Amino acid sequence: MTDESVRDAGPTTPPRPPRVRGARRAPRRVVAGAAARARRHAWFLGLLAAGAALRVLAMLGYRPVLWFPDSYTYIVTVFHPRPDLVRPAGYSAFLRLLEPFHSFAVVAAAQHLLGLATGVLVYVAARRAVPWWSGRRRRAGSGRAGTRRAGSGRPVPPWAAALAAAPVLLDAYQVELEHLLVSDTLFMFLLVTAVVLALGGRRRAVAIGLLLAAATLTRTVGQPLIVVVAVWFVLDGRLRRAAVLLAAALIPLAAYGAWFHGTYQRTGLVGANGAFLYARTMSFADCARMDPPADLRVLCDPRPPERRPPSQEYLWAADSPLVELPGITFTKANDDLAARFATLAIRSQPLDYAASVLSELGRTFVWGRPVYPDQEIYGYYEFPAVSPPPPGRWAAQLGVEMGRRYERGPIGTEVAEPYAGWMRAYQGVARLPGTVVLVILLAPPVAGAVRVLRRRRAAGGRRPAVRPRRLPPWALPWSAAVVLLVAPPAVAEFDYRYVLPAVPLACLAAAVCARSDQPERQEFGDDIPRNVQL
C-alpha cells in the first residue's frame, strides 16, 4: 500500500478495550447483595426506622430539649470546669464537646443517635453468626470440630434479635429520657458498648476499661460494674485481660480523683456518698433502737418511718436534719456525719435495711407506673402538654445564665403541636412494664438451669462431646443489669430513669441465652467426610 492510500484512508480507529466479563453485572450484584441483607434484617430495620421516626417527632414536638433539675449543674460545669460534689463531670465533658454548635437541639440529636446506636449494638450482639465469645473462627480443615465450646450454637432468629432491641428503640420513656438534658443516655451507651466488647474474643481489654471509666465518670453507679466485668474475666480464666482492664479503668479514675482532691482536699470522685446513704436509711432508721452518740442525734427524725417523706427529701428539703446543719449540705464534715449515721443504722437494723431495699427494688417490677417519689419528679419523665415552667427549687440562677450562654439565646422548651400531641399519645400506650422486665431478667438463669439439667441427662454420666464454658455468656450482661437495678435502691432510692439503662443489657442477656444448643454448620472438621454436602 502506498503512502497516498494510507493518507486517504484517514486516521485509524483505536482498538476497543477488552470487555471484562461481569463488569456490568457488578453493580447489580452489589444492589442484589444489599437487598438480600436488608431482607435478612428486615425486622430490625423496620424497628430502627420506627425508632428514628419517634425521635424525629420528639425533636419536632419539644424544641430544643427538655430540662431536668440536674441539667443546670451539668451546664455550670461546662463553663466552670471543676468536679461537682454530687455528680461527676463526664456528662459535662460530653456537653463541652458539643458546645461549639451553641445548640441544645444538637445535644438532643446526639443523645437520640446514642439511643439508636444502643439498639444496633444489642441486635448485632445477638445476631453474630459465629459466637464471638468462643474465640476466633477456625479456618476450614484446621482444628477439631469436637473442641467447640458450649454456647456456640445457632444465633437467634432475626425477629428474636430485633425483639431484644425493641425496648430501647421503641419505649416512649426511653425516647423521653434521651430528650432530657441528663447523663443517663450517654451512660447507657458507654456501658452497653463495654459489655458487648467484653463478650468479644479479641483483645479489647484497654478499650473496655476506658469505656467503663468513662461510664463511671458519667454516673458513679458505674464503679461496681468495673468489678463485675473484671470478675467475669477472672472466672472465665482470662486473668491477664482482667488485669489490663483494671489498669485501663483505674488510671482515668485516679486522675479524676486527684483533680477532685486538689479541688476539695477530699478523697473520692464525689462528695455526697454519705449523704445519699443517710437519706436511704431514713426510710427505716429508728434512733431509739440505734442509740446514736450525741453528735449523731441531730440527724434523727422523730417521726415514725411510715410517716416520713421519700428518701430524696432528706437531701433537698429545707426541713431535713441534714440540710439544717451548718454550711452547705455536702461539706466533708456533714457528709462524714451522715455516713456514720447511715452505717450505724444499717448495723443496728440490718433486716430493716434489707426489707427497705427490697421494697424499693420491688417498685421496678410493678405492672403500672405509680407516681413516685413525688409528682414533680414524676412529671419530668412525661412529655408535657405545655411549656414547662422556669427551673424549680434545685436550679441555681447561675445554671440558667450558663444555659443561655451555651445556647447563645433564651433557653426553655417550646411545645409544638401536633407533634407533641402525637408523642404524648404514644407515651400513653408504648412502654415496657416492670413485670415484663422481671420476666426478661428471670429468663436467662431459668433457661440456663434447664439447659444444664438437659445436658446432664443427655450425657448419661459420659463425658460430653462439647467442652463446657466456665461461665455462660449471658452471665455478664445479666449481672451488669442486676447491679444497675439493685444499686440505686441500696444506696439512694428507686427512680424510674435508673431502670432504663439496665433494660438493653437484660434484653441482650435474654437474647444470648436464647441461642440454640444445636451447633452451627461446621467447617470441615475431622469427623466429617470431605465429600458431604453441608
**How far apart, in Å, are the first and last alpha carbons?**
66 Å
Topology order in helix (H) and strand (E) letters: HHHEHHHHHHHHHHHHHHHHEHHHHH
The SS-based structural class is mainly alpha
Could you tell me the number of beta strands? Answer: 2
Shape: globular
- As a whole number of angstroms, the C-alpha radius of gyration is 29 Å
Query: What is the overall number of helices?
Result: 24
Strand order of the largest sheet: 1-2
Helix content: 55-70%
Main sheet characteristics: 2 strands, antiparallel
Uncertain spans? 129-152, 516-534
Tell me about this structure.
A two-stranded antiparallel sheet has the order 1-2. The chain has helices spanning 3-8, 25-40, 42-61, 69-79, 90-98, 104-127, 158-170, 172-179, 184-198, 205-216, 223-235, 239-264, 273-281, 287-290, 313-316, 332-348, 350-362, 375-380, 397-407, 419-427, 434-459, 475-491, 496-499, 503-513; strands at 62-63, 414-415. Helix 3 (42-61) packs across helix 8 and helix 21 (434-459) runs parallel beside helix 24. Mean pLDDT is 85; it is low at 129-152 and 516-534. Helices cover 57% and strands 1% of the residues. With 534 residues, the chain is mainly α.
